[in-house]
Design goal:
By secondary structure, the protein is mainly alpha-helical. The chain has one domain. The protein has helices at residues 2-32, 46-73, 76-108, 116-137, 141-156, 158-168, 185-188, 191-233.
C-alpha cells in the first residue's frame, strides 16, 4: 500500500511539473520568442513539434528497454512498462505527424508528401499501432508479451533511420534542429529561439512521463484484478 502511495505521489509531482513547464513554455514560445527570420510566425509550431517527437522517442526507448528486460527476465512489470510506453509513444507520434502537416502546408505548400523522414515516421506510428493491436489480439498473455517485445525492439530501430534520413536521402525536410552530428544546438539555432524550445522539450518529457505513470498504474491494477480473480477461481 505504501509503495502504491509513493508511486501515486511521484506521478502527481510529474503532473505538476509538466503543467508548470507547459504554461511557461507556451508563454515564452508564443509571446517571448521572436518570429523566425525566414518563416515568420508559422515557425512557432516548432515549439510543440520537436518536443512531441522527443517525447515519442523517449517512450519508444522505454519500450525497447522494457522489451529487452522482459525477454531476459520474463517479469510482468517489464512488460507493463513496455506496453504502457508504447501507447503513450503512439499518442505523441500521431501529434507529431499532425503538427508537421500543419507546419508543412504554409512552408511546402502541401499537407503531406512522401518525404523520407515523413514516411519513416508514419512507418514508426504504424509499427506501434500494430504492436498495440497485436497485444490485444493474442489471447495467451505470455505469448503476446513475447511477440510484443520482439515488435517493440524492431520498431525502435526505425528511430535512427528517421533521424539520419535527411542525410542519407534527398528530402524536403530540413536537417535536425538540435541533435545534429555536425553542429552543437546553439550553433544551429540562435539562443532567443533555442531556450524556449528547451523549456518545451522539458515540458513534454515531464508530460510523457506523467502519462506513462498513469498508464503503468492502470496496467498494475489490471494485473492485480486478474490475480485476484484467478485466486478466487482456484
Amino acid at each position: 500500500m505504501a509503495k502504491a502511495e509513493k508511486k501515486r505521489g511521484s506521478g502527481e509531482i510529474l503532473g505538476v511539473l509538466a503543467l508548470l513547464f507547459i504554461l511557461v513554455g507556451l508563454y515564452v514560445a508564443l509571446i517571448q520568442a521572436p518570429p523566425d527570420a525566414y518563416q515568420g510566425e508559422v515557425q512557432r509550431i516548432m515549439y510543440i513539434h520537436i518536443p512531441s517527437i522527443v517525447a515519442a522517442y523517449l517512450c519508444f526507448f522505454i519500450v525497447f528497454l522494457g522489451s529487452c528486460l522482459y525477454l531476459w527476465k520474463r517479469e510482468t512489470r517489464d512488460d507493463i512498462l513496455a506496453k504502457s510506453a508504447a501507447e503513450v509513444g503512439v499518442l505523441f507520434t500521431a501529434l507529431t505527424i499532425i503538427e508537421g502537416s500543419i507546419w508543412g502546408k504554409p512552408t511546402w505548400g502541401v499537407w503531406w508528401t512522401w518525404d523520407a523522414r515523413l514516411t519513416l515516421t508514419a512507418l514508426l506510428l504504424m509499427i506501434f499501432v500494430g504492436y498495440i493491436m497485436l497485444r490485444s489480439l493474442i489471447e495467451d498473455e505470455e505469448r503476446g508479451a513475447v511477440c510484443g517485445a520482439v515488435v517493440g525492439i524492431i520498431g525502435f530501430l526505425d528511430i535512427p533511420l528517421i533521424h539520419m534520413s535527411v542525410y542519407w536521402w534527398r528530402t524536403l525536410h530540413q536537417p535536425p534542429s538540435i541533435f545534429r552530428p555536425d553542429k552543437l544546438p546553439w550553433e544551429n539555432i540562435k539562443w532567443p529561439l533555442l531556450w524556449p524550445l528547451i523549456i518545451n522539450i522539458v515540458a513534454f518529457v515531464f508530460l510523457s512521463l506523467y502519462l506513462l505513470s498513469l498508464r503503468i498504474r492502470v496496467g498494475e491494477t489490471e494485473e492485480r484484478i486478474k490475480g485476484e480473480m484467478l485466486g478466487g477461481t482456484a
